[in-house]
Amino acid sequence: MKYYVSKTDVSIIDGRIQATEIILTRPDNLSATTEMHRRMERIGVPHVAVCKHSPKRYKKLTSEANKRRKKARELTVAEVAEIVAELDKD
Description:
- The chain is an alpha+beta fold.
- It has one domain (3-89).
- Helix content is 51%, strand content 27%.
């Protein structure tokens, strides 16, 4: 059986609770995963958990993370110029 470490972020956006699970490690055996979980807790990473590897769920979480990452990077030159102009005003 394989396990992985994930982190859950809970936030309130537009008055609604939104939870986001982020995968931190690749699937591995239980002893290696629990050791990584222990290390992450010791360095102060909040809300980490050991999860049992389900290929369907793991793939879904990975694709959601990729969508969030790509969405965050898509800025046009006009948007960047607008942001810079706002910063110059302040």
